[in-house]
Amino acid sequence: MSDAARTETLGEFRRRSEDWIAANLPPRSAPPEDPVDLQRLLFDSGYAGIAFPEEYGGAGLTLEHQQVFYDLAHELGRQVPTGTALMVSVGMLGPTILDHGGHEAKSRFLPPLLRGDDLWIQLLSEPRGGSDMAGARTRLTRDGDSYVLSGSKMWSTGAHQSDYGLCLARTDWEAPKHRGLSMIAVPLAPATPGLVVQQTRSADGTMGDFCEEFFDDIILPSENLIGEENSGWAVAQTLLFHERNAVANVGYGYIGWDQSESSADAYEPRSLIGVARQRGVDGSALIRQLIADVFIEETVLPLTSARVMTGMTLGTHEGQWGSLLKLQESEAAIEKVRAALAACGAEGVIWEGDDIELDNPGTEWLLARGGTLSGGSSEMQRNIISERLLGLPREPSVERGLAFNEVLKRQEPSE
Amino acid sequence: MLGLPVQLGMTDEQEAFREAVRRFIQTEVPLTKVRDLYESPEGHERAWWQQAARLGWTSLFVDERYGGGSLSGGQVRDAVILAEEIGRGLAPGPFLPVNVVAAGVSEHGSEALKEQLLPALVSGEAIAVWAFAERAGRWTVDGSESALEDTGDGLLLTGAKHYVEAAGSATHALVTARWRGLPTQVIVDLDGTGVSVRRGRSIDMVRRFGVIGFENALVEPDHVVGGLGEAAEAIQRQVQIAVALQCAELVGIADRTLEFTLDYGRDRFAFGRSILSFQALKHRIADMAQWLEASKALAGALAEAVDESDPDAMRLLHVAKAYVGDKATRIVDDCVQITGGIGVTWEHDIHMYNRRAALLRALYGSPEEHKEGLYRLLEATVGAGR
């Protein structure tokens, strides 16, 4: 921790931030600013990466200072940089590079990342399966001072609009699967030779944020390695930890509870009451209970998240609590769409006119499972909660101690 | 993660209180004692209740002038500490009714009534209960058929109050009734003429209930709590206190049940492994851990809202009872399944937790009733039909 953290109390920081926020951040009622412009404004005034060291472009303070800042912005009704791209970049990739990168890598990558000039994403999952991330088959081979990358990644959010991806690839095929992985920064600029980025079409027919990337012998300098060779799994674990926190709006990804998002939502409880009334089904006890459930979950979520934040500050909540919040949030989201389908009936899935895509509960339903699958499926979160928070015994592994090559051989069909 | 209390960051004094309450319950009324009390008519021993009273079980809502005193100034928050421990240990005693009445009388009672009743409640000599619901089992004064009438002989009360906790142990009741159709509360001495008590039991091991009937029972003028016809707000506040304590008790029950179930499951082996290494169980347990943490957050937020007289407290109350009432009973139920066959025997303690949870789920409104209440509050804020 830098000197600034020791010298500036939360109270002092609060006073100075309050003035700055009031004078500089646009009100929520104004048209939304480009998040990247807002991020640059924060960076240029010393309020980006509040908990990052000064030498890497941060403010050299703590996560508590960060919380104070964003809570203030929320209280004062000001816009802060929001959106997936910055959340991933600043809330997840930045902290991972900070935790594992060497001094050179941190000096080079972090300042432009914190300023929003370089957008970063993760390149972890592969087409063969997302949950078993350590089973990565993308190949990274050392060649003198460089590495050569070949293989493919999938489910990477916003790769087509990003500058760098942090890629998990296999450097040692003779080691057990968790011990032969490395993490390397890959420039995603379209001109990178050997790189193809394709957007994935979502179930609702639109081009979604998800992409698939193909690497055909891309040459990367060895300075791009984050963490030691063959210690990529530890880096990936850290990245997933920050991801769950960011999704749950705690830790480095904390930007205050964004209530404007839920109140603008067409499926929030009051809108559903309006729809149920219009359709004359608001006398149904079942529908009333479903709508009440939506409101209940919306009330419970921020309270649980606030409790975990308090616990992290007090030290009562250590470790993988983001998993618990992520599970809660994503499962509740499914129930919300379910309630919307119930309240809207045919109205939710049938419409007049020739539009082929419409924002309605039916469309929402097609994508609802995205939340319980991306960022680690609910099943993976349940494993983490039970094994790491509650200390329950792990499932026996059939791969333990085996060279990854051997694991692959055993997976081949026997005929 | 289990064992974390509803309130994080308690003061040293609050922590010490929690420790003392836990020790007192473990030594004076352990679960073996709760089993012994199962067949007793009152479900607790009077001398024990006075002992508990000395430890602060009756004093948290009462001013120091009458022998009371709170730890932090947040009365509900302090009482939540007790409620949670009572849930963990399934302690007996009329904790909830006595404290709700103490709060009501402290806030709205006449000076004479406070002097007469509060010190005796605090010491445990007197036990006052809240006679609120009626035959329909609805937790509201709307539709109450109990009536107070001004007559030449004074103020007379007629009606029947059902589901009254600790009715058979009580010396006094705070009765919710109507005077000229308006909500009113009075303290009635249960030894008086025109008062009858029919004892009843509940699914809980040690919590007894009963019906109290009033037939032209005379009410002393200074026993009207808060003015004739003016009790609506006081009643709402008493409901808030009751539900806040209930939610904390449910959290204590669920937390403790999950704790001993995991201790038991860890050492159970089947198919060559600990049964808790199976994902089929681990994933259920992870869900329970999530429900429990959210329940703790809600119970804490509700206690704070009631202490601070938050205008949104009613909405939060519906949310909290609907969520905690449902999840805590589900946790205990799932734990029975994980415990296996022994979980549905008398020998294993888990049925005692299941009993208390099932009782609290229904008392002061079930999750279903609170969801309906919540819907009505929300509905009132949505503009008239388009």
How does this structure look, described?
The complex is a heterodimer of chains A (415) and B (386). Chain A has 415 residues and is of the alpha+beta class. Helices cover 45% and strands 14% of the residues of chain A. The model of chain A is unreliable at 259-264 (pLDDT under 50). Chain A is globular. In chain A, β2 (139-143) and β3 (146-157) form a beta hairpin. A 4-stranded antiparallel β-sheet of chain A has the order 2-3-7-6, with no helix packed on it. Chain B has 3 domains: 12-126, Butyryl-Coa Dehydrogenase, subunit A, domain 1 (Orthogonal Bundle); 129-225, Butyryl-CoA Dehydrogenase, subunit A, domain 2 (Beta Barrel); 232-379, Butyryl-CoA Dehydrogenase, subunit A, domain 3. Helix content of chain B is 50%, strand content 14%. Chain B has 11 helices and 9 strands. In chain B, strands 1, 2, 3, 4, 5, 6 and 7 form a 7-stranded mixed β-sheet that branches. A two-stranded antiparallel ribbon of chain B has the order 8-9. The N and C termini of chain B lie far apart (49 Å). The mean pLDDT of chain B is 96. The interface between A and B is large, with 44 and 45 residues.
What's this, in brief?
The complex is a heterodimer of chains A (415) and B (386). Chain A has helices at residues 3-7, 10-24, 35-44, 63-75, 84-100, 103-114, 232-247, 259-263, 269-278, 285-314, 321-344, 361-367, 370-373, 378-389, 404-411, and strands at residues 120-123, 139-143, 146-157, 164-170, 181-187, 195-201, 207-221.
SSE inventory with pairings:
The complex is a heterodimer of chains A (415) and B (386).
Chain A lengths: L2 H5 L2 H15 L10 H10 L18 H13 L8 H17 L2 H12 L5 E4 L15 E5 L2 E12 L6 E7 L10 E7 L7 E7 L5 E15 L10 H16 L11 H5 L5 H10 L6 H30 L6 H24 L16 H7 L2 H4 L4 H12 L14 H8 L4
Parallel strand pairs in A: 1-4
Antiparallel strand pairs in A: 2-3, 3-7, 4-5, 6-7
Helix pairs in contact in A: 2-4, 5-6, 5-7, 7-11, 9-10, 9-11, 10-11, 11-12, 11-14
Chain B lengths: L11 H17 L2 H7 L8 H9 L20 H15 L5 H14 L2 H13 L4 E4 L15 E5 L2 E8 L10 E8 L2 E8 L5 E6 L8 E11 L12 H35 L2 E2 L2 E2 L4 H29 L5 H27 L10 H13 L4 H13 L7
Parallel strand pairs in B: 1-4, 2-4
Antiparallel strand pairs in B: 2-3, 3-7, 4-5, 6-7, 8-9
Helix pairs in contact in B: 1-4, 4-7, 4-8, 5-6, 5-7, 7-8, 7-9, 7-10, 8-9, 9-10, 9-11
